[in-house]
């Protein structure tokens, strides 16, 4: 059984070419602290209490990259559980200190599962 710990982050899509405008809105209007670094696919990250908000430019298409990310206690167990239920796993760019994979629900919604490496969170 998959053991969920918490919601880790949410990724929101923004229109192409709007990263600067999004950065201004989320940092200056909402007052969120930006998490510095080079994040996957040019995303910008912000801290909201104990979760992260990720924003990334995305062209509108059939399948969106928008997703919630759930931290689990044992990523390998989650992978095995989902594979046994014939759920296709997807992989993406690596993030330092985290292992992760994605699935799509029956409606095309993307869901991330992740586990922090020891001592990373």
Automatic annotation (TrEMBL):
InterPro entries (UniProt xref): Glyas_Bleomycin-R_OHBP_Dase, Glyas_Fos-R_dOase_dom, VOC_core
Residue ranges occupied by any VOC domain in the UniProt entry: 6-116
Signal peptide boundaries: none
PROSITE patterns named in the record: VOC
One Pfam family named in its UniProt record: Glyoxalase
Name this protein carries in UniProt: Phage portal protein
Organism encoding this protein: Spirosoma endbachense
């Amino acid at each position: 059984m998959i053991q969920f710990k918490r919601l880790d982050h949410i990724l929101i899509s923004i229109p192409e070419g709007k990263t600067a405008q999004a950065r201004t809105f989320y940092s200056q209007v909402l007052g969120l602290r930006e998490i510095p670094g080079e994040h996957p696919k040019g995303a910008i990250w912000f801290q909201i209490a104990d979760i992260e908000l990720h924003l990334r430019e995305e062209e509108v298409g059939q399948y969106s990259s928008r997703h919630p990310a759930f931290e689990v206690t044992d990523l390998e167990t989650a992978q095995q559980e989902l594979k046994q239920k014939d759920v296709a796993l997807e992989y993406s760019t690596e993030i330092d200190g985290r292992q992760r994979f994605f699935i799509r629900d029956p409606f095309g919604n993307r869901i991330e599962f992740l586990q922090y490496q020891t001592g990373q969170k």
